[in-house]
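Interim report to the steering committee. The following record documents the input for Cell division protein FtsL (124 residues).
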Amino acid sequence: MEVPNYNRDATARQVAQPNIRPRLNRPARRQVLSTTPWTFQDKLPYFVAVIALIVVAFSVITVSNQKATAQKTLTATNSKITANRNNNNNLKQDIATLTSTDRLTQIAQEFGLSMNVSNVRNVR
C-alpha cells in the first residue's frame, strides 16, 4: 500500500463561492379561490339556527320573568299567612284570658251571682 503524500503543494487554494442573490421580502402569494354564490340550501341551516337561538333567548327571558313574579307572589302570601297566624295567636290568648275561671268568678261576684256546686256537672 502506498502512503499518501500530504506535503506536496502546501499553498492554500481558493474555493469558488456560489453566487447568492440577496432575498427580497416579498409577500407570499395567495391562491385565489373561485367563490360560488350561496344557495338557499346553503343558507337554510344558518337561518334555522339563528331563529332557534332567538326563540330560546326569548323563552329564557319569559321563564325568568315568570319566576320573579311567582317569587314575589309567594313572598306576599307568606307574609299574609304570618300576619294571620300572629293575629290568631293573639286572639287565642285573649280568649284564654277572658274565659279563665278566675275572671268568670270575679264577674259573677260583681253581679251578685254565686256558684251552686250541686248544679255543676263534670263532663268527661
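Residues 24 and 30 are 17 Å apart (CA to CA). The committee is asked to note this result when reviewing the revised timeline.
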